[in-house]
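Q: Predict the bound structure with adenosine-5'-triphosphate.
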Amino acid sequence: MQKCAEAIVKHVEAAFARVWLLNDAGDVLELHASAGMYTRINGTHSRIALGKLEIGHIAWKKTKYLNNDIVHHSRIHDKKWAKREGLVAFAGYPLLIGKRVIGVVGMFFKRPITPAILDTLGSVADAITQGIERIRAEEGLRQLSGQLLRSQDEERRSIAGDLHNVTGQNLVALLTSLDRLRRAIPSSRNWRKLIIHCEKIVKKCLAEVRTLSYLLHPPMLDKFGLEDAIREYLEGFGERSGIRVRLRVPPKLGRFNREAELVLFRVVQESLINVQRHSRSKWAEIRVERHKKKVVLEVRDKGPAITTQRSDRAHPAGVGIASLQERTRQIGGHLEIKFRKVGTTVRVIVPT
Ligand SMILES: Nc1ncnc2c1ncn2[C@@H]1O[C@H](COP(=O)(O)OP(=O)(O)OP(=O)(O)O)[C@@H](O)[C@H]1O
Ligand SMILES: [Mg+2]
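A: Predicted complex:
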């Protein structure tokens, strides 16, 4: 908006241009941008009640107001000021989405407004409206995806807890009962065989439930922090994938806030799954650096040189990386992925 106001001043030679937006309650116009003679947005007229002064009137009436002789005819209340500053013309446009007013753009000029300038101003007002709507829609979408990611985390945490504490404990109880049953009937070989078979299945289920619970949400993360959670994850990942992962962390990494630890853990998890699924590399490295106010984490592999579909890789279609980027953005961080000739690097920076 500030850039728009500056562009108006520059290109149509306005003395100053300002953009007010209607507040959430819909009763006050709040100044959001100001360029030209006045650049402060917290001074006089930073808040104008709907219907008051010329700006409030434009929003109330939802019609533009143009005047090429403000000193004599206008509703501009401070004519002395206008005269002193050499201002002769005023143009004010309501910013309208359909019939709903979202703000007003107002401009003063030191020379009369020509019909050509009038045309330009009308389209500038439309462009500002569309820009504001787009920003608001993007902001709404961002908030929604943030909420979705947070509720997904909570759900995963709770399912992981139930799987571990309830299903896991029931399986342990079943295993104990089978053990007692086996001891109670030592004579029949067939029954013993069947019970041993049952025990094997229950043990497998138990291992699967533990892995699933861990993948959903590692309990280590909340209890002991990122480093221990990554180390534990790597043990299972190495066995499952056959990929050797080197972890380089400073001697005293310490703890970060809960959100940052979860985002960093998810980056490790998703990036390593990507290494396994897409890179064919048998080696990966995770590097963590702690700076004063931020943590930098990198996951890289030595996947084969990319010879085909490079452009597709520059705009990947999966949701893994995109959701990591959104998670990172939600906590004020930044994530980038670089596909090099040999190897891919995911680099994330989050504030602590
Ligand atoms: N380590 C890697 N080596 C090579 N290519 C990779 C690597 N990581 C990601 N890619 C490429 O980037 C694409 C996007 O990754 P992303 O994780 O977003 O999606 P995906 O893994 O394909 O699907 P999913 O939504 O299940 O994660 C992949 O499809 C792959 O082409
Ligand atoms: Mg993926």
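A: Residues 115-184 form the longest helix (70 residues).
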